[in-house]
Amino acid sequence: MPDSLAATDRTRLVREANRAVYDRDAIYKILDEAFICHLGFATADGQPFVIPTMFARVGDFLYFHGSAASRTLRGLASGLPACVTVTLTDGLVLARSVFNHSMNYRSVVVLGQAELIDDPAEKLAALHAFTEKLIPGRWNDARQPNEKELKATSILRLPLTEVSAKIRVGDVEDDADDYALRVWAGVIPLRLVADPPLRDSRCEASIPTPAYASNYKR
Amino acid sequence: MPDSLAATDRTRLVREANRAVYDRDAIYKILDEAFICHLGFATADGQPFVIPTMFARVGDFLYFHGSAASRTLRGLASGLPACVTVTLTDGLVLARSVFNHSMNYRSVVVLGQAELIDDPAEKLAALHAFTEKLIPGRWNDARQPNEKELKATSILRLPLTEVSAKIRVGDVEDDADDYALRVWAGVIPLRLVADPPLRDSRCEASIPTPAYASNYKR
Fold first, then answer.
1. A164 touches chain B (CB under 8 A)
2. Sequence-ordered list of residues with C-beta below 8 angstroms from that of B149, at least 6 positions apart, any chain
């Protein structure tokens, strides 16, 4: 696939177009950092539903999983148009005026139609990607999925063809006249951190805590 | 409004119904902790769009703001059905089996139709709520919106009538047979934290950093 995605009429940013990003590497970095996405679809009467769910990227596809009995996954598998949005919040931007307050963030919007994965090898590869994305090293430590579990899990994939990102970084942007005001201005950076892990009450103390849990980093 | 929201056919959880919450106080607490929501709507051809945006709750309404020129806000103001989803990620749940890995989270889904706010006093109250929600104390320090800025800002509100929450908390839930495995299991708590604030390059050093910036807490 090309390094840069062509904006379509549906992904081209109209407002704040200077924040638009169509570079594939930059977009994939955002997708790989985020834990969850918000998956949107609409029913026939036009009512949208937006569902938070975990996801993983493998190559030029996003993968989702859920119960084979899930209405959402069945609806999407039937070919409903989908929108997947991923958002990372990086900071609060405190301008001198209330009006120019903002957030630093990175977000990605993917439009398209999902398809159900039937091939057991591809399903297993997707589950591997989910696990290793969340906790690198965990797949080999945990009990891997058996045939029954694989059957009970539906996996969908969405091609990364119609995609755009929007990024706001950096300083405050105030109106020219407001810079003279004696108001503190700046950015408060935000970050998701992990606290020390809580051992399951039924996990024997003699089982050592793996480094990926005791020193978890995003 | 009643303390507990009645589940409708559209908000009643079918899957994992034990995670459903319809208590108004619990739902409002989640809404008030979150910075951003994901706002969904669909165009006439059934294509959903999911947009991350800031919001604030005032009483039994959610408020959103944006440019008066925004296509999204104009579409929503015209009465398109909306879905607003708010998600907080609280932890990674490491089960003994890959299949039972999960996340601890709190999410809220609001369905309804938004309406445009025309009354300048209500618009100002909504902007006050946005600012004070993000940074308590900031409204009085910053330059407050003037008439031109108020006109350039569209504000929508969505009634909190059809609302549900889904919460996963606590320990790992493994299959009975898997508890015998010598696999570390537990929860890695996740938390959004603020790093020390970055003073704007054009903010004079003699202006003291306010406590809400130097010691920001969610």
1. no
2. A97, A99
Are A41 and B35 within 8 A, CB to CB? Answer: no
| CB distance A53 to A37 below 8 Å | yes
State the nearest Cα–Cα gap between A206 and chain B, in angstroms.
Answer: 9
Chain A residues 114-153 within an 8 A CB cutoff of chain B: 127, 130-131, 134-135, 138-139, 141-145, 149, 153
What pLDDT, in 10s, does the model give residues A55-105? 999 999 999 987 776 778 888 888 899 999 999 999 999 999 999 999 999
The predicted-structure confidence for B85-104, as pLDDT tens digits, reads as follows 999 999 999 999 999 999 99
Q: Can you give the three-state secondary structure of B98-128, one letter per residue?
A: HHHCEEEEEEEEEEEECEECCCHHHHHHHHH
What does the pLDDT look like over A11-24, one tens digit per residue?
A: 777 667 777 888 89
What is the pTM assigned to this prediction?
Answer: 0.93
Residue among B47, B183, B186 minimizing CB distance to A143: B183
Q: Into which CATH architecture does domain A17-193 fall?
A: Roll (2.30)
Q: Closest to A48 (Cβ–Cβ): which among B82, B135, B200?
A: B82
Q: Is the dihedral of CA B88, B65, B28, A191 positive or negative?
A: positive
ipTM of the complex: 0.93
- Mean model confidence pLDDT for chain A: 92
